[in-house]
Amino acid sequence: MWFLSCEPPLTQAALDSHYWEADDFEQHPAEFLGALFSESAEEASMRVRRSKPSHLVLYAGMAQRIQNVLGDLGYHESARFFNTHFAGDSRRQGDVLVYRLSGTQSS
Which one, of 34, 74, 36, 80, lies nearest residue 57 by Cα? Predict the structure, then answer.
């Protein structure tokens, strides 16, 4: 299992140059996923290349932004769960969606 990370830098001096994986995903989600699951080390840049997980869990607001990329990567929506009546943070709007990689079994 793997999650986006947002660990703080170890020192205050490193704050400006610190790589924030969660912010990178939020700002450029399609490019982030494309590079993360790319076969090319060149495309991965600062990201660690990973094999595709069987499932991705996203908020509906983000899923709308990357619907085409999810399909291109072989994912389709397999479950939807209610999130909240009040969205206090725009990054967490909408239902919680589970996407499953085609060819994998649901658990």
Answer: 80
User: What's the half-sphere exposure (Cβ side, CA atoms, 13 Å) at 29?
Assistant: 15
CA distance 61 to 50: 24
pLDDT-based confidence at residue 3 (cuts at 50, 70, 90)? confident
- Report, in this order, helix, strand and coil percent for the chain, each rounded to 5: 35, 15, 50
Pairing of β 75-81 and β 96-101: antiparallel
Q: How far is CA 95 from CA 10, 30, 41, 106, 107, in A?
A: 34, 20, 34, 19, 20
- Written as six digits, the tokens of 83 are 């999130």
Q: What does the block give as tokens for 100?
A: 């499953």
pLDDT in tens, 19-38: 778 888 999 999 989 888 87
